[in-house]
Amino acid sequence: MASLPRQIVRCASAAALSLAELVWPTRCAACDAPGQLLCDRCRNALPYIDPLLACPRCGAPYGAVQCSECNRATLQHRGYERYPLDGQVSAVSFDDASARIVRTWKDAGERALSAVIGTFVARSVPPSWIQRSPVVVAVPASPNAYRRRGFDHGFELASDVAERLGLSCAALLDRPRAKDQRNLTGAQRASNMQGRFKIAPGTASLHRPPRAVLLVDDVCTTGSTLFSAAEALRLWGAEELYAATFARVW
Ligand SMILES: [Zn+2]
Ligand SMILES: [Zn+2]
């Protein structure tokens, strides 16, 4: 039986939650309708990426037969000899609704959305990757973004995805020392992120590199952030690098 002080604390937190719900009722992150964090109408209307039509390597929607985003010419143009990931998927295309969901989560402080977004990401991960038992690794927020938001959305999302998939989660990467990516062009993003991720201090001496890694992030814009994170993990010794994001810009 719970002790009396603990019962009092539980009752107080339940009362605080009810009060918060009364003052700030739960609203849909996409359309603002009251009731759910993501209403059924908006959930059904999201632009889901069909894995059967997507590129099996880079996850580009409709790239299953011929992909213009990860072919040799595109990679050479971006300065890569090979695609930096062994597989990449996203749950939805980036549109107004998915953008609003991400903004409400990261910038409006609706942290409960981690679980909603985590469900989408976990469902998009192919079973063949899960069988490889990858360690789920967050793409950490930059020090500025972390200070501005007061929480690291990347770690919350990665932990949620790992729990849903029954995989372990580890904070293996240090925060990137790079400029804010939001107002940069594709080429600027690539050079801004190149070599910006490092293995977290102390990690290399305490752990061996995992054989397989599943990088998790909210949005893939050009792939530069994921590529840079994958590069650091591959240099350390990880052999298979997969990535899953909630939304993808294309
Ligand atoms: Zn809605
Ligand atoms: Zn592709």
What's the domain count?
Answer: 2
Radius of gyration (CA) equals 19 Å
Q: Taking all residues together, what is the mean pLDDT?
A: 89
Counting DSSP H or I runs of 4 or more residues, the number of helices is 11
Q: Given this structure, which CATH class of the largest domain is correct?
A: Alpha Beta
Number of strands: 5
Unreliable segments of 5+ consecutive residues: none
Helix content: 40-55%
For the largest beta-sheet, the strand count, sense and barrel status come to:
5 strands, parallel
CATH topology of the largest domain: Rossmann fold
Strand content: 5-15%
Question: Can you describe this structure in just a few lines?
Answer:
With about 250 residues, the chain is of the alpha/beta class. Helices cover about 40% and strands about 10% of the residues. The protein is built from eleven helices and five strands; from the N terminus they run αααβαααβααβααβαβ.
Task: Walk me through the structure.
The model has no long low-confidence stretch (mean pLDDT 89). This protein folds into 2 domains: 1-45, no CATH class; 46-248, Rossmann fold, CATH 3.40.50. Helix content is 42%, strand content 12%. A 5-stranded parallel beta sheet has the order 1-5-4-2-3, sandwiched between helices. The chain starts with a helix and ends with a strand. It has 250 residues and is α/β, with parallel strands linked by helices. The chain has 11 helices and 5 strands. Helix 5 (113-124) crosses helix 8 (153-165). One zinc ion binds next to helix 2.
